[in-house]
Amino acid sequence: MIHRPLRQSRGRLATIFAIILCLMSAVMGSYVYSACQKASADYTKLVSDIILAQQATPQLRTALEEASHQPSNEPIEYIDYFVSVSKQHLNNIQTTIERHRYLTSDVQYLTHHFIELDSRLSILNQQALEAQQRPELIEPLLRDAIEISGSQAWFYNQLLEEIHAISLQQRLVMQRLSIAVSVLLVLMVSAAITLCLAVIHLHRQRNLMYQLMLTDELTGLYNRRHLVEVAFAALTQAQRDKAPLSLLLLDLDHFKQINDKYGHPSGDEVLRQVSIKLRQLSRPSDTLARIGGEEFCLLMPSTSTHDALQVADRLRREIEANKLSDLDQHDNPTISIGVTTGNGGTLTFEQLYSFADKALYQAKALGRNRVESLLPPLTASSENTDKAYMQSLIS
Q1: Is 219 contained in some domain?
Q2: Cβ atoms within 10 A of the Cβ of 53, count?
Q3: 110 plus 246 within the same structural domain
């Protein structure tokens, strides 16, 4: 009884620990998933687009410088080509960046450069259309285009440096990821083991509680509650099979004197040893229960009065002959037994118990350490036979 709160406390701690491990596993799993997404990102196409744009920029710039020496409207064609190619590269790069949601936040500070370059290219394209009617605008436009190409070169270099930094972060993430996966596996295994242990503990606790509900704590025998349940099923079976059902009530004689003389611990030990002896002498099909302080009950399915009286007398003799080391020889306990039998399950358990209890009272009144029986109303011949056998057995 003292250890039961400790077992319950351990069960609660195991459950709480399992819940904490599950939460930690969920958090670690979320981190592992996010890290996997970052580590598995492929920036090959983005780098390829940036390098292509980076290589095209000096070529376009050289073409613009050469266009300044061309006559008539030929520089405008170079400007249009410059704007078209530059916009195409910018759009390709921006589209590729948008596909990588983890990369977008890393290059967020370069967003305004995208917008600025796109806007300047659009303005440059519009001014090139105006320069077709105003040749004096061609030279300023060429200078603006060359300046924009320089901004593009800087912008592409910044992007490449950022991608390089992100690649280094990917390596670090992979290292952390391997550690996180190992920790996650350990946590999951620990959580699974802890949960299994908690379930096993709860299962054992449930079985223990169920066992305590059915058994007597001191002797380990069944209690009155379980006896009533078994008796109900046995009576139903006896009614179905038209079979006899015998009930024995056993009571230790002068047990109060043992408690008064040797103390209650010794009395408890006597009860335990008597219980062990009764269990050894009972059949597997019988149900033995402790129903009071020193009172026991033996339910015997498919057993006639004749057989029940034989069993009862054998029990009485074995208990009388059983010497207990803690007691003096003249204080060795004896038992009185009351026997009754119901035929065909026609009586309830309460009725059978009442007949057996009256028989036990009669055994006590006639001097104890004896067997008496009291049977429900039967035919005259059957009743005379049982009484004759009982008298011969007692004598």
Answers
A1: no
A2: 22
A3: no
Number of Cβ within a 10 Å radius of residue 239: 16
Indicate whether 178 and 230 sit together in one domain.
no
The per-residue pLDDT for range 94-111, each reduced to its tens digit, is 787 777 666 666 666 677
What percent of the chain clears pLDDT 90, i.e. is strictly above it? 29
Q: Supply the pLDDT for residue 389.
A: 43
- Alpha-carbon distances of 281 from 275, 277, 287, 289, 315, rounded to whole Å: 10, 6, 12, 13, 7
Distance between alpha carbon 395 and the CA centroid of its chain, in Å? Answer: 64
- Is 247 in the same domain as 123? no
Same domain for 185 and 84: yes
Q: Are residues 142 and 290 in the same domain?
A: no
335 and 312 in contact (C-beta within 8 Å)? no
Handedness of CA 235, 238, 244, 245 (dihedral sign): negative
Mean pLDDT over all residues of the chain? 80
pLDDT at 2: 40
Which residues constitute the domain of residue 65? 3-195
Question: What's the rounded Cα separation, in Å, for the pair 142 and 133?
Answer: 16
In angstroms, the CA 287 to CA 151 distance is 98
Q: Is 179 within 8 Å of 151 (Cβ atoms)?
A: no
Rounded to the nearest 10°, the torsion over CA 161, 165, 167, 173 is -170
Number of H helices, E strands in the chain: 12, 5
With beta carbons less than 8 A apart as the criterion, state whether 215 and 221 touch. Answer: yes
Structural domain includes residue 215: no
DSSP assignment string, 240-278: HHT-EEEEEEEEETTHHHHHHHH-HHHHHHHHHHHHHHH
**Mean pLDDT calculated for residue range 375-392:** 54
- Hunting for tokens 């054998």 — which residue is that? 314
Contacts of 5 (CB under 8 A, 6+ apart): none
What is the domain count for the chain? 2
List the one residue out of 231, 340, 337 whose CA is nearest residue 287: 231
Q: Do 372 and 359 contact (CB within 8 A), yes or no?
A: yes
Residues carrying an active site annotation: 294
Give the tens place of pLDDT for each residue, 265-303. 888 999 999 999 999 999 999 999 999 889 999 999 999
Phi, psi (deg, nearest 5) at residue 346: -80, -20
